[in-house]
Amino acid sequence: MPELNLTSAPAHLRHGSSIGQPLTRRDGVLKVKGQATYAADNHPPGMLFAVMAVSSIAHGRVTSLDVAAAKRHPGVIEIMTPDHKPQLAIDPEIKTNPFVFRMEVLQSNEVRYANQPIAVVIAETLEAATEGAALLAPRYEMLPALVGLDAGESFVPPVVGVGNPTENHRGDIEAGLAAADKRIEAVYETPPQYHNAMEPHAIVAHWDGDNLSVDMPTQGLMLSLGRIAELFGIAPDKIHIRSPFLGGGFGSKGLMAGPPVLGLMAAKLVGRPVKLVLRREQMYGPVGHRAPTRQRLRIGADGEGRLTALDHHARTVSSTFDDFYEPAADASHTLYAAPAIRTSHDAVRVNTGTPLFMRAPGEATGSIALESAIDEMAWACGIDPLAFRLKNYAEVEPITGKPFSSKALRACYDQGAARFGWSRRPLQPRQMRDDAGFLVGWGMGTATFPALMFQAEARAAIRRDGTGAMEIGAHDMGQGAWTALAQIAADAVGLDIDRVTFKAGTSDLPDAGIAGGSAHTATAGAAIHSAGAAVIAKLADLATHDERSPLFGAGNAGVIARDGRLIRRDDESRSESYTEILARAGVAEVEARGTGAPNPTAMEEYAMHAHGAVFAEVKVDPELGQVRVTRMVGAFAAGRIVNPHLVKSQLFGGMIWGMSFALHEEAITDRRSGRIMNANLGEYHIPVNADVPPLDVVTVEEHDPHVNALGIKGVGEIGITGSAGAVANAVWHATGVRVRRFPIRIEELLT
Amino acid sequence: MKQFDYVRPATVAEAVAAAAQPGATYLAAGTNLLDLMKGGVSRPDRLVDVTHLEGLDRIERLADGSLRIGALVSNADLAHDAGFAKSYPAVAEALLSGASAQLRNAATVGGNLLQRTRCAYFYDTASRCNKREAGSGCDARDGENRTHAVLGWSKSCIATNPSDFCVPLVALDAIVEIEGKSGRREITLDELHRLPGNTPERESALEPCDLIVAVRLPPAARGFAAHARYLKVRERTSYAFAIVSAAAALRIENGKIAEARLALGGVAAKPWRARAAEDVLKGVAPTADAFREAAWRALTDAKPSGDNAYKIELARRIVVRALTLAAAGTPARIPALPASPFASTSGAIHA
């Protein structure tokens, strides 16, 4: 484990509370100095290199591999193929729980998508393994590839997302539309997108008899541990996974995918440590992606601009062999108070790796369509887009009628609009130009993401030397968990952050749950908070039951833990240090565990969501069609903000991704072969520094007593929602051209 | 990776000799070649590393007023040479609009001239590509081709040359100095790149062993310094190839265009010199009408090779804009967003 002992805000500036302080990330210096050890940085003695050979066809079967040629290549040790591989304990096609997705680990010669692993070459050097993979020169029996949103007969999947109903409705859509004064119907398309984390999937696997040591980036240590144990038929306590740092996950490293399993198999086959790192283009297939969508929105509004009906249908794709359906239409459940709402989905199967979770799955795709359609409806009604949203502000969650646990969206609208200067926006499009003659447009979108909680456990200890420890198998994907969770830990045990040893990132620590769903800080934080409370309670027992303690008999009054002391709640002059209490009791340390979990009663009672409002300005060259985002303001209400500095960075990242969604990102798929033609960072465009304008993030004060003990809602994904629509709407406002296929391309604006 | 020999000759003569072996190829910075090798697109048997050759990294002003740029001068060094940028501003602007700062620090003048197309089907070894494998077919023709050629393409190949640097160079009549088996010779840059015809695998006029040792800008090239721009439309502000670009250079005397130079990038297998458009502009006043007429002439022979008809109209508009910008005068400093339509946007601080 790396030594994490860095402080950027001195204790005297923190006023005794770590939560809420804008600390810089505690692992920042390690990262800047190249000392943060990512999975692929590990080189155990005797390690070999494994390289995957992947399919160049999208559908068919491998009929031959020139194993002999590959084996002859100097340095090549072994070739793992469907005919030559360690046996797994269970069939990887069996879905043992809803979070198991099918993977390709050489179980057959069948090819189900392009870039599917079809063999693994293990060699003394990366170069030898790479050439060995090329020498396999696979031959195929090719079958026609299913490509695109019209690839075949559509069907209605049983569920979308993670167990969401495929269809939802409230009220009578057709009646609502019939009664409307104004109606719009529009179809929006979003492309397939890939996570493109800076760090590719990587694994260093080392078997020692039945003991398995794994270095691998994962957003879900325990899920990975369980899946490995199940696949290899070994006890979970024989497996040790280290994942101290991830170079981005965005959902792609949440669940065990095929390639790391191949790394484990390769190490088993050769009986030596093996490293397997995916090449960038190999990331476009076996490790998930965001599925394309085609979304049809039908909206009605009365003469006052109040919604009468909101009908949102999404077509998406899944793979030919597994089921994950981007729940895009569900974005219409929570934001706008239409008396009639219907959301529905259908899908076709295509020859692709199974689409999976990608930052705001469903929310991001659904948001750009919904926010565009709301913008179109506002225009149809002749109402300012912000005024239109306020007119249709949902006081209760529209699809369920439940009250919100908290909702400071109105404040987000107000503060964001004021910061942006929205009130000066002309209603008509194509009205504004800058001094250089560029068209200028202003657009907005509402952001929303559910406040989720999973389950986690943490272990806390207080030691006789007056220090504390907090242990939880949490994941830092770059979002700052090393820092934010340590802040919560410090407050939980009443110590300065530098007095608490915070351990995370390995599988021998208590289960922190998955770092997904924007729920990690809330979930792990709740466990840490409760473990801290439990250990303080034990310490308090030692003191309040001991006649020699100044706190004797304070049991009913209670004590407060602060700065390494327990202080009698009703008489602050009576206190005792942790050190004194433990020394007198003659124990080296006290420890306790605590859990974090969703509160089912609160969930039953309340709708829980974070909200935000994003405002964007774009400039468009009137003749050449090139678009440039020139400023963005986002105001977000996401409950308690543990670390404003890190939260701001998370929201910046989300807003940039939203802009990327509107203007840049697309995996270009050859319509005949199903191959992705831009599987590299040169041609799969994401914004570069020069594309990113000054960004302004406002975090709006919001106290939520229901979501969890700390009132945290999570900020990991919300930034992308609202932002994509805001940019798209700004392009319309600049040009008067409504582009409904994303990303918006230059040719659409060459009017 | 395929095993290959690596040799590092000390002199140009040794380099040319070392390249005589079949399967040999020159390696300069490798910003394109190494990617091609990693992708299995190029599989050379021998790399002849020319980066240690003496005397190829100089920028020299010759007695006759021309400028000689050694083949190993880096894109960044050339673009940031104050004297160069002042005399050939459109070339400097084109250089700074290409790739990323990191790539420009590595990439060389000679290598840039020989960079390969970015056609995805050329890079994807599972696709048919006449350029990569002669006679295998062209999967780009009916494929994803919205960025492909609209000028000079053939049924065999619709790929484009991606260079920014070459566009103003060809406009300024740059000359390429080549060292080969039979000694030194020179050709114009316009002659260096070939159109695909039926042999798209032959991309240049170079013969085996030929090594580009320098690029020369003739004396007349600096006559355009006051009115020269490069304009590049792309899908993000930096680190993206041109959808269409144009270099425009004017010599304006007494309110009339004494001489015009115009070339387009991203439209053909070579940097596309638009001589017919230049002729239209000779001797006329620099007006919007004249520029529109020139744009029309420049694209007379254009036709879509796929889902890219928009590129023809876009190219016309870029020509008009580039000429308009050139006529307005070269800015005192290269814009913070070089060659971008948003170059004039204030507040931009980096590319």
Query: Spans of chain B with pLDDT under 50 lasting ≥5 residues?
Result: 347-351
Q: Which architecture name of the domain at 223-328 in chain B does CATH use? A: 2-Layer Sandwich
Give a short account of the largest sheet of chain A.
7 strands, mixed
Give the helix tally of chain A: 16
Return residue spans of chain A where pLDDT drops below 50 for at least 5 consecutive residues: 1-15
Q: Helix- and strand-based class of chain A?
A: alpha+beta
Count all strands of chain A and give the number.
29
Oligomer: heterodimer
Q: Determine the mean pLDDT of chain A.
A: 96
- Outline of chain A, from the CA principal axes? globular
Question: Could you name the CATH class of the domain at 363-452 and 603-749 in chain A?
Answer: Alpha Beta
Q: What's the overall average pLDDT of chain B, rounded?
A: 96
The neighbouring-strand order within the major sheet of chain A is 3-5-1-14-11-12-13
- The general outline of chain B is globular
Query: Got a strand count of chain B?
Result: 12
**Percent range for helical residues of chain B?**
25-40%
CATH superfamily of the domain at 363-452 and 603-749 in chain A: Aldehyde oxidase/xanthine dehydrogenase, molybdopterin binding domain
Q: Could you state the order of secondary-structure elements of chain B as H and E?
A: EHEHEEEHHHHHHHEEHEEEEEHHH
In the CATH hierarchy, the architecture of the domain at 363-452 and 603-749 in chain A is 2-Layer Sandwich
Radius of gyration of chain B: 20 Å
Q: Class of the domain at 223-328 in chain B, according to the CATH hierarchy?
A: Alpha Beta
